[in-house]
Amino acid sequence: MLSTSARLILFIAAVSGLAACGSQLEKQFLGPDPQDLINGGATRIGGEQTRAHVSGNTEIWEEGNVYYKPDGELELRWRKARFKGSWEVAANGVVCWTIPAWQKLDIPDGNSLQTARSARNCHYYLDDNGRITTVQGKRVVGVNQIRKGRNL
């Protein structure tokens, strides 16, 4: 039979193991914490550099893409659905989309942990030694490919 202190030590070890596992699951499903990349030397991209990165280009993701028209309008294809809206870049490099049709949807947006009823969606970029990484909310959501021109 284990002593009370031995049981307590096993309990603490088990809880610590679960906490570590939970953190790994969180990173797997929500993406890594951007602070980890910043601690590793990544830098946040400012407004003018972000505007140059996206304007007139198409950002490609696994399940869709968005074309950033130079006039501030955008075209978005996501899982075969198409949407139109607008985009803007703040001085600190935050890119915000406004997609009016999203206000009518009743589905969760897993990346930003908001509901899709919000017609507005924002993100920013980190430069990780030449790899441009997208950050949405408090999570890195991936390295997206950018192509010149409209590629929907």
Blueprint of the fold:
Elements: H1 4-30, H2 34-39, E1 43-44, H3 47-54, E2 57-60, E3 64-68, E4 73-78, E5 81-89, E6 95-98, E7 108-109, E8 114-115, E9 120-128, E10 131-136, E11 139-143, E12 145-148
Antiparallel strand pairs: 1-9, 2-3, 2-12, 3-4, 4-5, 5-6, 6-9, 7-8, 9-10, 10-11
Give an overview in words.
The longest helix has 27 residues. The N terminus is likely disordered. The chain folds into 2 domains: 27 residues; 114 residues, Beta Barrel (Lipocalin), CATH 2.40.128. The protein is an alpha+beta fold. Strand 7 and strand 8 form a beta hairpin. Strands 1, 2, 3, 4, 5, 6, 9, 10, 11 and 12 form a 10-stranded antiparallel beta sheet that branches. Strands 7-8 form a two-stranded antiparallel sheet.
Radius of gyration, rounded?
A: 20 Å
Coarse structural class:
alpha+beta
- CATH class descriptor of the largest domain: Mainly Beta
Helix and strand element order: HHEHEEEEEEEEEEE
Number of domains: 2
**What is the distance, rounded to the nearest whole angstrom, between the alpha carbons of the first and last residues?**
66 Å
Described by the principal axes of the CA atoms, the overall outline is globular
CATH second-level architecture of the largest domain = Beta Barrel
Please summarize the sheet with the most strands: 10 strands, antiparallel
Low-confidence stretches: 3-29, 112-116
Mean pLDDT: 75
The percentage helix is 25-40%
Q: What's the number of helices?
A: 3
Strand content: 35-45%
Topology-level CATH name of the largest domain: Lipocalin
**Strand count:** 12
